[in-house]
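note to self: the first set is below, dont mix up w the second
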Amino acid sequence: MCSHQPSCPSSSDAHSAHVVAAHPEQGWSLLCTGAILFDDSGELLPDGRVIAPHRVPADRLAMAA
């Protein structure tokens, strides 16, 4: 899908993929693997599968003093 070197990572290593197009005003980025990564940590994979956002429960967030 892209021509950078080294070549695109496998789908199991999608988080090391290069950003091809970033649209922060819309909350998403297109990766060189063809996946779309959303600002809420959700993903849409090239084969149509959806990965739900991986949010940390609020009770596990650190509170600023």
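second set (the one i keep forgetting abt)
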Amino acid sequence: MSATEDKIAAWLAARQPEMLAELEAMVNTDGGSYDKAGVDAVGARIADFCARHGIRVETVPGAQHGDCLRALVEGGEATAGSGNARRNIVLMGHRDTVFPKGEPQRRPFRVEGGIATGPGVADMKAGLVQNMFVLAAFQACGGAPGPLVGLFTGDEEIGSPEGRPVIEREARAARVVFNSEPGRPTGNVVTGRKGGVFMVLDIEGKAAHSGANFEAGISAIEELARKVQALHALTDLPRGITLNVGLVSGGQSVNTVAPWAQGQIDLRYVHPEDRDEVMGRIHAIVERSFLPGTKARLTIKGEFLPLAKNPGTEAVLAAYQAAAAESGFATEGEFAGGCADSGFTAAMGAPTLCAVGPVGGKAHSPEEYLEVASLVPRAQALARAILKLDAAGL
């Protein structure tokens, strides 16, 4: 190990109490995707941390959702012949959570038996803390093989409607991207993820009294029910394609033929080429009226691209695995069914490794947890992986 690597590893090893303090403050701050003020309050903590460590931060305002923060640590030149001198090394993470307003007051941050709990503790406020401290370590100790960019977005849990253009712009010029989503419960990182499309299906029928004038009505709820059956029939588990109508609503009253109905649809797929095929079949179902006289409208509310391997995937995984071994743990790459912003960066051609954050599990549930002992080793592994990029040819 180099003197710089030793210095950075030691700097991080001394800061677990500070990491936990930052994590507690973030977890105890409201930050659901539609709570812009809360997400931006978490962003203010990150900006304050960066200012205290001499790290410059740029804000890209979000109109409806949390702003994007871009922190920059200037680095040295890459070694001769790498071809990547001055290209940005991106550390990515999102500040929003899936939880309703008031959840931190109901379930505040807590550590017991080495396990931290609280809304968003693993997904992914611990990853934010990790990225902050890795940036600060390089700012304090030097040694970065090029500029480090910390990209902290605010709307990932709803498909990054405002964050995606910022992420894609950053990825086009990125040397490599590390997305600090939580490390898997196995300790593994993620090299592949499904893509996802989140849609709203609105049905228009015709109201009528369900007793006195039933035949004059056209039930939007019945039309939705038939469409749900057809949509679910598109699920193809061997191909990794799933359709789920997870929310339904509709109707006017129990004694009225329903004049409207709505279903919210989740599509997941593995291979990029499957997306258009399945969406074409979905549109055919939407356009078909099972009950004559009904009308339907499909709206895409959010979308993730799959995290697919590209030419740099194996090299960045190998660099991280070597860094992990030097930090005291072993890790492999695995596939995950959940979506993440890492799909956008990989699609832009940036070598991308996901789930390099501290280890946790049961995200999006009251049982979400984080292994506190993983905070420092995972931060050290990320820093060491950055220092290995030149040798890896990245």
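remember for set 2: The chain has a mean pLDDT of 95.
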